[in-house]
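Customer ticket, subject: "Can you confirm the structure for RNA polymerase subunit sigma-24?"

Message body: Hello, I'm evaluating your service for our small team and ran a test protein. I'd like someone to confirm that this is what the system normally returns, since I don't have a reference to compare against.
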Amino acid sequence: MNDVEEAITRAHREEWARVVAALTRRFGDLDVAEEAAAEAFATAVERWPADGVPPNPGAWLTTTATHKAIDRIRRENKRHDKHKEAQSMHHDDPPESLGAIDDDRLRLIFTCCHPALAVEARVALTLRLVGGLTVAEIARAFLLSEGAVGQRITRAKAKIKAARIPYRVPSAEDLPARVTGVLTVLYLVFNEGYLATGPDTDPVRQDLTSEAIRLTRLIRALLPDDGEVAGLLALMLLIEARRPARVSASGELVALDEQDRGAWDRALIAEGHQLVRERLATGQAPGRYQILAAINAVHTSARDIRDTDWSQVVALYDQLVRLDPSPIVALNRAIAVAELDGPEVALAAVDRLDGALAGYHAYHVTRADLLRRLGRSRESREAYDKAIELAGNTAETAYLIRRRDQLR
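Agent reply: Thanks for trying us out. I re-ran your input and got the following:
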């Protein structure tokens, strides 16, 4: 990849959400914003190789996208007042501040996460418009077809327009009820960065993890006493702290038990542990994110995998199962049980999840590892084959292939 191609890729990663959010604020139409942003990036692909990369790529893209949007509104010109609106919006007057925090992308998240939309639509729309994920990446994350995800996003945008859902940060009294859906979306954006599913993307997308953390910090500034906001931030920080050790120099995923713990970011770990301690000190019953953060605090407290307090991890998963009795939580609990009670007990628990998780690659990864530890090599290889077929992350696929081939 040459310098210009790298600049375009970096600009898309760093500026996509800013451009879409700025145009949404200006034009009040997600379709116009998304399509104009896409046209601006397409123009960059055409012109930057010849003209050179502009000094401020974000400003160039926003200006170009704004002109594209105005041109589109003029072409449609379905109503005279819309044409006048396009003309007035051509001026670069500073727009008024909306909401408690002046951040376009935060406003965009609350618009995309409005309770008038189905939860699935909120997540897909935010991943597309804020996270900049492709429809294919979102489909892989949700184990859905691309067509289904595309329809979900289209219907969500139409619902926002028809219902005139406002583009703003909610008022203080509305925030607590609205924040749960936002946290769900931010967690999924973070997860896509932590273990990227796209075959042509970096295996770990720091742009997405950093953006999810940044926006979660902003949410916490709005709701400093909300335990789940603090819990989600702690969870993200403790996972992000391990990022420097997660992919080897050869591009292969490094499992937790093989990671160089000296490479972990101690400052992020300290901040995450402090948040967990602060929540414990309140004496309030923890929510899902707080429990997940506590589990990760146990892992990051151990200087060696052998020092991990697995009984505490299992006890925390027992708490989590009561709050969230999902098959994925049960799968993760079984992984911890394997360290405490052995792989045979864990495998029995995992096999009971076959009907619910047959299409989930981590289910087959877990089975492959447990079967390997039990000496059942042929079955382990078959499970690795299925996991490799379903895995979308390039670094994880390389790791699984090596592990499978070691069994030959």
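A couple of notes from the result: Residues 87-101 have pLDDT under 50 and may be disordered. Residues 225-308 form one domain. Feel free to reply with more questions.
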